[in-house]
Protein 1
Amino acid sequence: MIHDFEDFVTWMFVIIDDIWQQIAPRYRRPGPAPTTCSDSELITVAVVSDCRSWTTETQLVQEWQRYQSLIPRLPERSRFNRRRRNLMGAINQIRQIVLTMRDVAQDAHGVIDSLPIPVVSLHVASRRSREWDAHDADVGYCASKKQYVFGYRLHLVMTLGGVILDVVLTPATGDEREVAAALLPAFPDRTILGDKGYVRAPLAEQLDTQSGVQLIALRRTNQRTPLPRALTDLIERFRQIVETVNSQLTEQFSIDETGAHSFWGLCARLYTKLTAHTLCLYLNRFLGNPNWLQIKALAFPN
């Protein structure tokens, strides 16, 4: 049971360390192993910090000084940041392994959507680092927020229970239908719900024929063949899951405020936030729903 923040950190560490022991040989680095803060401890710190919205290394180090009984010694800020980047593949693999522990393969339905990931404020985008240009960041319009952003779009496939199955990062102007064509074949024999941005009859036919994926997207008001009203209402109701997950990622995990100064730093932070989200959902199910309110109160204080 989780009674306080120390218990929360302990649960997180036990899960992460158990998985890390299985995958550690794949991520061996030259030189001696860390002696002051193990890799599983560092991953735990990164994940829990994102649960608490401690987004900058300065804030992270300051906050963890209060919990030296849990993590006696953290690397200094730049070294912590460098090690997290080096471990981002392992962090994402931990997320993928936790997904197998939840048996999400049994879910026959899912949702696809996207949300903006700004990397530079629009008013200073003209003075941006060439780093972002080299990795195709650009200016795109976010209809849900009714504003332009400079950066990327994070496309997510999730279950109707709000578990994120897979993600892909594209430029902010990336075509949602092209992403669906590349991403959804990995989920054969499922029905995937999408918004109006995924409407394209040839795409739906291609996915159905080649992968057995049924993509059902909301229709635009000017289309000649609208969906039945009952089906439209059903899709809109289930798509509330998208709003819930996007709200969690934005408000609780600050996914739109990564503070990254490089593309690979951005990727490391996104992997960490997504892994934190998945682990919290796993704890919710593992410990039972009544404990989720307590976990949320500890991990995401107001």
Note: The radius of gyration is 20 Å.
Protein 2
Amino acid sequence: MEKIQLIVPSETQNLRLDFYLAKELAAIFSRTKLKQLIDRGSVLLNGKSVKAHTKIVPGDQIDVSFEKEPADLLRAESIPIDVVYEDKDILVVNKPAGMVVHPGCGNLKGTLVNALLHHTNSLSSAGGDPVRPGIVHRLDKDTSGILVIAKNDIAHRFLGNLFKQHQIDRRYWVVVAGNVQHEEMRCTEPLGKSVMNRKKVIVKPDDGKPSITNFKVLKRYPKATLLEAKPETGRTHQIRVHLKTLGYPVLGDSVYGITSHWISRQALHAKGLGFLHPKTKKSVFFESELPADMKSLLKHLEV
């Protein structure tokens, strides 16, 4: 529990409690938040809870008690980010492997959100989660690649609806163990969280959520295959689990795939992202190069 104590100065005369606090604590609380604190008795005037309209006089002691919310703990951090495109409505970035997209579970530092807060003052809040400003969709920590960020609420709602309606062109490059025989594959196994381990996703024929991923061979290697994955739905770990189901585990994936000497994380990269621009309503498509670790992996697979 955090506490702030104020003593009303001599020059303050005949002013409402809420007006005074709104002026003095504007950098910490919104007017709405202050009203909530007063209404729940977290603001004491000379040791007693009072109404928001109560008049204060010089010498009064005001004590404000509050719990720090996750959003209050968020800090901008000077973390380099690879900006692919930016305008007044959207920001497209190339996320590196190893970076968490947004804070959670006590992890409030080093995330993409921390970097975004340093990069821009314009991030949407339409997602409803105060620790995920601007975040419309996610990539796993160890998946690299393209993400679109909403810089205002109108853009966020528009993009969110496109994702909900599966009207986003998402293209991933992924390296799997084995020589894929078919030029194209399609997996439609429904997915859901494992009862035994809530962090894992499994195929659940009876009560899983509909999940569809399309795969196309890009290049075959002696003991592996480079695929393009185009998910039609956006389930957690969808591509990795579907490939495991098809019998082609992702290289470097210690959870669903097979470990590799040549890469220390899942060989999965969000290569391209296409959608209607929220302002112009024109189709746009953004791409990123394969990161160094995946290029190195493919080089080693040549022999």
Note: The mean pLDDT is 94.
